[in-house]
């Protein structure tokens, strides 16, 4: 009986130690509001119902509530003005050795053009109308047609327009050459400016980028699942696996409360290992990520934590986060 009591007390003590090591109640409340990452700046949002890998999203937008298009200078400016701390955008290499800021692998969905984005020069891409394909009523009306000519920027143009702002750049491939090319562009910038740039994309592209710029914060998409699984297995001890270091630690809002130490213990551990906690919108079981795009989802999150919130509607949640 005495041995059972000792064993029980030992288990209880161990459980208490794990709880204490992972409880944000003991970590205290952060005094800093969460950072806001504006996905593609400020642009039009769309329904995710029945969304496939190659589904055109421009022809399924919700009725427009603002005049901005994703991945444009104007959309980035509006996002920063709404409270974004970081703007995420997508890049493709062009045939003339530059980078175009555009999401889609082809230009067919959003523009009047045809073909693979990276098989065109930047001048060809800038001549297209990036608002051409948007419709909220099945093609009856196209509210942005004719308004997006020349609005596809080059990477250099974006960085010059916002010299003191933070960015998260998405390489849209797993191409080693592309990772090296982007590293050449960012590596030519002053050291302090380089610190304001984070990059994510295919694992091989990220490895090439990281090899060229060892101090950079990168996220290889092939590391996301291993990171989460290893932290789920070991995070109770406070250990941060190698896959989760010097990167972005992305958690859906509906899974986040179950992560060891969420929010403040987790964000502290990640920060000590060069990483940033990023909370996405709820995961519905599909492969498509959502953002914290409405106040209902925002209210599920802690009012204060030392991490970041991923959003497609910084115009909606930015003022609410800043006011907290």
UniProtKB/TrEMBL annotation:
Any GO MF annotation of the entry: phosphoric diester hydrolase activity
Sorted UniProt keywords: Signal
**InterPro entries named among the record's database cross-references:** GP_PDE_dom, PLC-like_Pdiesterase_TIM-brl
Q: Where is the GP-PDE domain?
A: 34-321
The source's domain of life comes to Bacteria
Q: Which Pfam families match?
A: GDPD
Give the residue range of the signal peptide.
Answer: 1-20
- Keyword field contains Repressor: no
GO process annotations (BP): lipid metabolic process
Entry protein name:
Glycerophosphodiester phosphodiesterase
Species of origin: Mesorhizobium hungaricum
């Amino acid at each position: 009986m005495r041995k059972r009591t000792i064993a029980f007390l030992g288990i209880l003590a161990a459980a208490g130690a794990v709880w204490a090591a992972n409880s944000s109640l003991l970590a205290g409340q952060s005094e800093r509001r969460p950072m806001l990452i504006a996905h593609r700046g400020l642009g039009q949002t769309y329904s995710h119902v029945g969304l496939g890998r190659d589904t055109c999203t421009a022809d399924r937008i919700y009725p427009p509530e603002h005049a901005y298009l994703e991945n444009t200078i104007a959309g980035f400016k509006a996002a920063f003005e709404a409270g974004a701390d970081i703007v995420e955008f997508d890049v493709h290499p062009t045939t003339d050795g530059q980078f175009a800021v555009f999401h889609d692998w082809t230009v067919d969905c959003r523009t009047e053009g045809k073909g693979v984005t990276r098989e065109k020069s930047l001048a060809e891409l800038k001549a297209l109308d990036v608002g051409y394909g948007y419709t909220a009523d099945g093609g009856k009306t196209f509210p942005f047609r004719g308004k997006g000519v020349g609005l596809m920027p080059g990477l250099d143009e974006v960085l010059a327009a916002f010299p003191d702002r933070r960015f998260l750049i998405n390489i849209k491939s797993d191409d080693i050459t592309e990772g090296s090319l982007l590293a050449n562009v960012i590596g030519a910038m002053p050291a302090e400016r380089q610190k304001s740039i984070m990059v994510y994309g295919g694992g091989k592209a990220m490895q090439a980028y990281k090899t060229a710029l060892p101090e950079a914060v990168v996220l290889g998409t092939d590391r996301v699942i291993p990171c989460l699984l290893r932290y789920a297995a070991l995070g109770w001890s406070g250990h941060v696996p190698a896959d989760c270091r010097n990167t972005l630690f992305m958690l859906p809002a509906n899974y986040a409360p179950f992560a060891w130490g969420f929010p403040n213990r987790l964000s502290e551990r990640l920060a000590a290992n060069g990483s940033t906690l990023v909370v996405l919108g709820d995961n519905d079981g599909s492969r498509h990520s959502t953002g914290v795009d409405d106040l209902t989802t925002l209210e599920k999150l802690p009012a204060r934590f030392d991490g970041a919130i991923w959003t497609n509607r910084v115009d909606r949640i930015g003022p609410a986060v800043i006011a907290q």
